[in-house]
Request: fold
Amino acid sequence: MLQMLITGLLWFCAIGCGLLAGLYFAFSTFVMTALGRIGQASGIAAMNAINATIVQSLFIPIFLGTTAASAALAVTALLRWSEPGAMAMLAGGVLYVLGMFVVTMVFNVPLNNALAAADPASHEAASLWARYLTDWTRWNHVRTVASTAACALFIAAIAAR
Reply:
């Protein structure tokens, strides 16, 4: 029974990491560039609309569920270290929690909050928007790589089992 639960969590995490890696990849490769091209007020308004909408979508349960399951798999790997795939399971869980969740909470969310508090048409918003495009995207690259690598590690753990 426990083996089936672990395998189910591995599949859930692999799929969740893959979905989020794809979302982050889209933002890193073309969404943020497009928002930067449409002008300050429009770009800020669009990003604020995205940020308000995303927290009311299926993103949040997948974001939080994958984070919780990844943390649980990391702990499980430590407790069952001698089992096949434990190292990949631990690495995937730690990488995802730190590289995706912690980065999001420490860097991306505060940047989103600062952007939401700004008047999109103000002079102050111009420098904020320029920094936001650079800084938010840089940290999003980290989330993209962490989510992709964690997905691969969870798949490796499944294959090892």
Notes: Residues 1-160 form one domain. The chain is about 90% helix and 0% strand. The first helix runs from residue 2 to 37. The chain has one domain: 1-160.
